[in-house]
Each structure stands twice: as C-alpha cells, then as structure tokens.
Amino acid sequence: MKPLDRHLICKQALMINHFLHWKWFFLALLVGSILNLVNQFDGLFGRTELDYLKLAVTYVVPYCVSSISSWYALKA
Length: 76
Known about the structure:
By secondary structure, this protein is an all-alpha fold. It has one domain. It has four helices and no strands. 4% of the residues are buried.
C-alpha cells in the first residue's frame, strides 16, 4: 500500500468518525422532534394524514447542518 493510499484511508476514517458522532444524532433528534411537532402537529395527533417524507427530511436536515457546520469550524 502506498503512503498516499494510507493517508486517504486515514482521512476517510476521520471524516466518517466525525459525521457519525453521537452529538449530531442527538441534536438532530431534538431539533427534528421540535420541528415535527410544529410542522405536523395535526398529522402526529391523528387529525390529518402524516407525511412520512417530511418527517424523515425534518430529521436529516438538522443532522447535516450540525455536522457540516462543525466540520467547517474545525477546519478554520
């Protein structure tokens, strides 16, 4: 294995470890739950049909924002 290959594997491992950190999942769970309560209150309590795509995206977006912004903050 060439030194460059080892360096790329190390960088990939660092990136994976950063983006799979428990803080980002906790933050996404907290913020996503609050946003889902606000945006789909009627759907969550059975008055209207629940939109599952919106439900999933509401958890994914805070996760991406928190992990990517912290990544850029570490690089600065």
